[in-house]
Amino acid sequence: AGSILQSVRAQIPDVVTNLANDGDTFRLSDLAVWINDAMREIAIAARCVVDYYAVGSTASQDIYELPTTILQVEQLWYDLKPCARSAALNDFFTTFISGNSWFFDPAFTIGATPRMHLWPAPSRTAATGTLASTISATGTAISATADIAAIMAYGYIGIENEIIRYTSFNHTTFAFGGVLRAQAGTTAAAHTAPVTISELNVWFKCSKLPVPITGPGDAIQIPNALTPLIELYVISKCREAEQEAQLAQAMRKEFQQAIATLAQNSAIKGLRQGIQVRSGAEGPLLYGGRVYVP
Asked: H/E element holding 232?
């Protein structure tokens, strides 16, 4: 975020020698809020922040709550098997479903929490184990105290609040191989044995909101090509605060026009469930008898 903060302060102007400090006109916390607001609008319009996420299955449970930062689920796998995206009608009339499928809609929420329907409901509860020895926030040597017989050959595990990817599990040494820490937007942390290792066997590719920034050292999760839009938004807010209403309004209009273009031309189209149109047999696989509204 440092380059954006430096550029914005140079254009206001409100130059500081240390970007972590407040300026004479604008506080760092105010600029950070505006940067976060801009990133949020860009991410919603362009669906440009793409990541993987994973949860553990529970036997006979078909509904799973997801983080509120997830905007759209694009692809899903259960126990290494790809699942087909299903229409909402199948969510209620499950006899239409012939194989593993899923349904997700940002509007399908309770208390603003996105929920995903996986059908048929998983037949098993994700495996668990116990961490054999304490690991640091950078450690990659992760072992369990005993064999985790049912765990998938590769995938994701959860230890406390961290999601970790692995490419193998040795059923003799109980060690995980190919470990990648801090996946799916989580933060690497030290874990003290004997905490629980949880298998996360439902994975999905999703578009999501970016992680908010608080200071110049934080990463901007919006593609570099779109950072001028962030600067445009932040400077418009600065002009608004300086009572330059006409200039602020013009800059804000320019930002909104760019956002509309992103939403229209983005390579990653954000799909949302539309109106139900089927009353008979199941329609084509891609649409499932349902209209998808971009």
From this structure: helix 227-241
Closest CA to 82 of 102, 61, 104: 102
Q: How confident is the model at residue 144 (pLDDT cuts 50, 70, 90)?
A: very high
pLDDT, tens only, 162-216: 999 999 999 999 999 999 999 998 999 999 999 999 999 999 999 999 999 999 9
Beta strands 202-208; 50-55: pairing state: antiparallel
The pTM (predicted TM-score) of the whole model is 0.78
Partnered with residue 110 across adjacent β-strands are 113
Which helix (H) or strand (E) covers residue 164, if one does? strand 162-166
pLDDT at 288 over 50: no
74 alpha-carbon distance from chain centroid: 11
Note the pLDDT of residue 215: 95
The predicted pLDDT at position 98 comes to 52
Residue for token digits 């692995």?
166
Residues 6+ positions from 222 with CB-CB distance below 8 Å: 39, 42, 43, 48, 49, 210, 230
- Which of these, 262, 261, 252, lies nearest to 222 by C-alpha position? 262
Are 193 and 136 within 8 A, CB to CB? no
Confidence of residue 101 (pLDDT cuts 50, 70, 90): low
Token code pair at residue 182: 């801090």
The answer to whether the Cα torsion of 221, 225, 226, 227 is positive or negative is positive
Q: Is 147 left (phi over 0), alpha (psi -120 to 50) or beta?
A: beta
